[in-house]
Amino acid sequence: MKKLSYLFVAAVAAVIASCGNGTPKADLKNDIDTLSYAIGMAQTQGLRDYLNRIGVDSTYMDQFIKGLNEGANAGDDKKKMAYYTGIQIGQQISQQMIKGINYEIFGEDSTQTISLKNFMAGFVSGTLEEGGLMTVEEAQGTARTKQQEIKKAQMEKVYGPWRQENEEYMAKVAKKEGIQKLENGVYYEVIEEGKGDIPADTSRVKVNYEGKLINDTIFDSSYKRNEPTTFRCNQVIPGWTNALTHMPVGSKWKVYIPQDQAYGDREAGANIKPFSALVFTIELLSIEK
C-alpha cells in the first residue's frame, strides 16, 4: 500500500481529536483487524521526527495521543471539526506566521514583535467578513505600506551610521579630480580608454572586475579566480548596467556606485551590508556574439 505523506500525517496530528485519553488496545480477531493495525502502525513512520521538528514536547505525548484519539473519533461532526481546524490554524499562526512576519520586519532583533492581539482582531474580522476596520483589499495595501515604513525605520536604526558614511564617501568622490558622472549618481575614472564598440543593455559581455566596499574590503574578484565573467548587461545591478552601456570595449574603469544603484537596503552575501556604496574596477574585454 502506498504510504501516506508526512503532510497528511501532520494534518491528522494537528486537526484530530476522541473520547479516550489513552492508547486503544488492539484486538486482532480476523484479517481485517490485522490489516487495520498494520496500516495504522505503518503510517507512523517518520511521525516522531516530524513532531520533534514542530516542537511537540515528548513530555506531553499523552496530550498528543488524547487529541489524536478525539479527532479520529469525531467522524463527520462538523462542530468538532471546525474547532479542531481553528486550533490547527491558530497553532500555525503562533508557531510559523508571527515568527516569519517578525523576522521579515525586524530581522535578527528578537525583542520586537507585531501585536498578536491586533493581528488576531484583523484575522477574525477577515474570516467572518464583518466588523472590519477596512476591507481585505485595503488591508493588503496598508500592510505593504506599513511594513515597508516600519522595516525602513528599523533599517535606519541599525544601519543609519553606515549609510551616512557611504553617502559622505560618494560626496567626496564627486569632487575628485578626473571623475566623470553618469546617470543616477554613478561616477567613474578612466584607467584605460578602449576603442571598441559600446554594448547595449541587452548585449552579452565578457569582463574582468574587482569589487570593494568603501573601506577597501574586497568582496568579489574575477581576477582572483583567474576567469573573466560573461553576462548580459541588464542582468546586473543598475550601476553596472549604467557603466557598461557607456564603456567602449577595451576600456578599464574604476566605477563608484551609490547604494540605491547597488543593493539598496538589502544585504548581499556576507560582506555587503544594507546601504553600501560599491567601488568596482571593471575591464570590458569583449561583446559576445
Please tag this protein with its features.
289 residues; alpha+beta; Chitinase A, domain 3; 7-stranded antiparallel beta sheet; 7 strands; 46% helix; disordered N terminus
The gist of it:
The protein is α+β, with helices and mostly antiparallel strands and 289 residues long. It has 9 helices and 7 strands. Strands 1, 2, 3, 4, 5, 6 and 7 form a 7-stranded antiparallel sheet that branches.
Shape label: elongated
Q: Please give the domain count.
A: 2
**Biggest sheet character:** 7 strands, antiparallel
Distance between the termini: 55 Å
The structure class reads alpha+beta
What does this molecule look like?
By secondary structure, the protein is α+β, with helices and mostly antiparallel strands. Helices cover 46% and strands 15% of the residues. It has helices at residues 6-15, 31-42, 47-53, 61-72, 78-106, 116-128, 136-174, 222-225, 238-244, and strands spanning 180-181, 187-192, 204-212, 218-221, 229-232, 252-257, 278-288. Strands 1, 2, 3, 4, 5, 6 and 7 form a 7-stranded antiparallel beta sheet that branches. Strand 1 and strand 2 (187-192) form a beta hairpin. Helix 1 (6-15) crosses helix 4 (61-72). The longest helix has 39 residues, at 136-174.
